[in-house]
Amino acid sequence: MFAWNKATFAVKALVVACGFAVPAASVADPLPRGAKIANPQKIAKIYSGKTELWTNNCGGGVYFAPNGQARAWCADQGENLGAGTWAVDANGRMCQDLVWYYPDSGRAGASANDRSCISHVVDRWGVVWRSWPNDPEWWPMDKNAGFVRGYKFQAQVGQTRSKLGF
């Protein structure tokens, strides 16, 4: 039962982090007037090769590798890691499919696959905006969007993988 609770917590931590990882300096708005679905290649370029920091919650983030792999790690749950894929669809939605792995009686346990999609639009001035599932607010993807170049938590993910035995 303890491992199940850890897996449930890890998945909930990801959902909370993704749903509320909006930097404090950003301002939300309703759907921008004249907004159109964002070009999928433009959205992929924004995410590819960067780590989105989850500064408001767990002290971690998710890395979006150029090859479509995604890796997530949370300092608050440092023994867990998320691994999966990401892609941008024709409707400008960036979807990530992650499985959270956690210690379970000397082995690695795994959560169910967790799929989350973020919608993107472009306003008439070319600014990209995003909205999380079930959130009526749209957030501008400017310099305060919480992205850093590179795989910020690569060492932590590697250490966690070793501890989990894979």
Averaging pLDDT over every residue, what do you get?
Answer: 84
Q: Would you list the SSEs in sequence order as H and E?
A: HEHEEEEEEEEEEH
Q: Give me the Rg, rounded.
A: 16 Å
User: Can you give the helix content as a percent range?
Assistant: 10-25%
Weakly predicted, low-confidence segments: 1-25
Q: In one word, what is the shape?
A: elongated
Distance between the termini: 23 Å
* Main beta-sheet annotation: 11 strands, antiparallel
What's the helix count?
A: 3
Strand content: 25-35%
Number of strands: 11
Task: Summarize the entry for a quick read.
By secondary structure, this protein is an alpha+beta fold. The protein has helices spanning 2-20, 40-47, 154-164; strands spanning 36-37, 50-54, 60-64, 69-73, 81-88, 94-104, 107-110, 114-122, 128-131, 139-140, 147-149.
Tell me about this structure.
It is a single chain. This protein is of the alpha+beta class and about 170 residues long. About 25% of the residues lie in helices and about 35% in strands. The chain is built from three helices and eleven strands. Strand 4 and strand 5 form a beta hairpin. The longest helix has 19 residues. It is elongated and about 55 Å long. The protein starts with a helix and ends with a helix.
Secondary structure elements and pairings:
Blueprint: H1 2-20, E1 36-37, H2 40-47, E2 50-54, E3 60-64, E4 69-73, E5 81-88, E6 94-104, E7 107-110, E8 114-122, E9 128-131, E10 139-140, E11 147-149, H3 154-164
Antiparallel strand pairs: 1-8, 2-3, 2-11, 3-4, 4-5, 5-6, 6-7, 6-8, 8-9, 9-10
